[in-house]
Design a protein that fits this description.
The chain is an alpha/beta fold. Helices cover 31% and strands 26% of the residues. The strands form two sheets. Strands 3-2-1-4-5-9-8 form a seven-stranded mixed sheet, sandwiched between helices. Strands 6-7 form a two-stranded antiparallel ribbon.
């Protein structure tokens, strides 16, 4: 999917559905927050929620007292809904409207969180660009929390095909720059009453010889 097509798709989704109507809606992102609390450095910590859209995760991040909180999404409509919900507190967040497969630089973050963007990247080149961007943004010792549909999860979402992952297949995609330190599974109840199986992986950004100067 090209950048304009991807943006048009998600703008349409968020314009036509309420925040609580999309299948990935969570009233409380408990597992994400649990893993973030465990691996994020709160003293001067910087965190980005990739594909955060209108998710309420950012509300919890602001309550944790990070030095910098950023939310990225390809849909400006989704980000506007989040800003409206937060009101004055929206000023405490760096809002980034961008396609993660195209962005060249987002800054430096101690923790990169992604729930359900990576599994939409069915093109190998898009996945490569995603990983390269993450490697530029996360310093050695930082962490990535990435959640996707698990092996027994749906084969498509929002009328789009997806790729499903487990710890081994995700580690292979991220490559030698990341080391798996924890994994978890979640059975996500959708607003329509069905369940979706998710894989969560926590990966540490590791120093490689080629990274050294």
């Amino acid at each position: 999917m090209t950048e304009p097509t991807r943006k048009q798709h998600w703008e349409s989704v968020y314009a036509s559905k309420g925040v609580t109507e999309v299948s990935w809606y969570q009233k409380e992102p408990r597992l994400s927050l649990k893993l973030i609390r465990k691996f994020a450095p709160f003293e001067g910590g910087r965190i980005i929620d990739v594909g955060g859209g209108a998710s309420v995760l950012v509300d919890g991040l602001l309550n944790l007292g990070f030095e910098r909180v950023a939310v990225l999404d390809v849909s400006e409509t989704a980000l506007e809904k989040a800003r409206e919900r937060l009101g004055e507190r929206a000023r405490e967040v760096a809002w980034i409207t961008a396609d993660v497969t195209v962005a060249r630089d987002l800054g430096t973050f101690d923790l990169w969180h992604d729930r359900a963007v990576f599994h939409f990247l069915t093109d190998e080149n898009d996945r490569r660009k995603y990983v390269e961007l993450a490697m530029r943004c996360i310093p050695a010792g930082g962490h990535m929390i990435v959640a996707t549909f698990a092996d027994d999860g749906p084969a498509e979402c929002s009328r789009l095909p997806v790729r499903r992952y487990n710890a081994a297949s995700m580690a292979a995609e991220l490559g030698r720059g990341f080391a798996l330190v924890e994994e978890a599974r979640e059975l996500h109840p959708t607003p329509l009453g069905s369940s979706q199986s998710f894989f969560y992986g926590v990966f540490e950004r590791i120093q490689q010889p080629r990274d050294m100067r």
